[in-house]
Amino acid sequence: MKNSRTIEWDVDIDLLRKYDRPGPRYTSYPTAPQFSDEVGPLKFLQHVSNPADQHRNLSLYFHIPFCNTLCYFCACTMVITHNRQRIAEYVDYLIREIELLSARVGDRLVRQVHWGGGTPNYLTPDEIKRLTEAIHRHYNVANDVEMGVEIDPRDITEAHLRAFRDGGFNRISMGVQDFHEPTQKAVNRIQPESMTRHYIELARSLGFESVNLDFIYGLPYQTPVTFARTLDILIGIRPNRIALFNYAHVPWMKKHQRLMEPETLPRPEQKLQILKLAIERLTAAGYVFIGMDHFALPDDELAVALRQKTLYRNFQGYSTHADCDILAHGISGISQTPFMYAQNTKDFRQYYAALQQGRPATERGVILDGDDYLRREVITRLMCDFALRFDQIEQQFEIHFRDYFRTELSELDEFIQDGLVEQTDDGITVTQMGRLLIRNIAMTFDKYLRRAKEVRFSRTV
Predict the structure, then answer these.
(1) What are the φ/ψ torsions at residue 172 (nearest 5 degrees)?
(2) pLDDT tens digits for 101-113?
(3) For residue 22, what are the contacts with CB-CB under 8 A and spacing of at least 6?
(4) Domain 1-30+369-461 falls in which CATH fold?
């Protein structure tokens, strides 16, 4: 059912083709290639404990890296294991980390909790209970906290869902990727439509307020025809939010991606057609295109934040919690404070050793200087508001925008000529078509790309 606040799209494939190039996703700025070992446990604790930031709320992230089976497309930090003792040990150390970090942040209010992976529901219901109880015991969790968890319906039971719900979780994000069976077989993720529907209905019946479904375009055997059927099913299920990710083929980083036959991947032209089809179908069905990969129903908090220009972007994608610092737990987790990003080690032994010694497992990160802070705000506002007012930036940072960004503004000319950006004396507005290429537009303001040599990113389309 359409809503008067939704906008139908007519996607220009020629422009998608023209601007399809590698680029950052801007879940942070500076981006991960700028992280270094100059940021370790000491600097992390200094920033987390900064008295000037103690009024800021918290978003807690927990990385559960374990999976039962390998999905060939996966680019996450994960490990395949059936060793339950190994998983139980990891939960023990997560609780140690909770105890360590909570003592540093005192009674700062936790507004958001998110579990990602891996497969968080690969924990047993008792382990879920134990971990959620530790969170509520050690942190000052808000009564109306938003708690979300990524789930895989192939390894979940009603007892798992009840354990999450009893622990305060009110949102689930379920990976689907595609309902097309040949695609599922090719990526080693067999997930029947009936299974997906069953656990969505069960989650809703248990009181989960929001259901998000994740899909990927660019996987083996996908065509516009096959994906049209997937979209029919998806629209019929009508989740609150939809994430439609561009498959990042990075076999030099994730060797298991080589298990997929390259000739089965859709051609670049087919990928563009699938993207065009998805955007036009979903927006015609009443979904709001939030930005980049995300869609939401008009009354969803993300859509409301987009209209009210309060949307934010961080390592969890688009968020409504701009007032929160991120405190990450578990291997590879990335914490964020106003002037710092800090990432935990990805090595289990190093992670355990750090916590045994009573220190964070911080391995690398970056401290923002004044220019970084300014450019992050510019990029964030473009990514979230699709507009930028020069006077707001000038007042906040005491600069003259046109002088400071003289080179960058001149480089917007091509976007303006292609109808992706409109520029006035007061600021910049991204057009409807420009929203699909917002990564490219934001790259204009990224000073690190000007001196990058061999940094590899996923493609922008």
Answers:
(1) -125, 145
(2) 999 999 999 999 9
(3) 456, 457, 458, 459, 460
(4) Arc Repressor Mutant, subunit A (1.10.10)
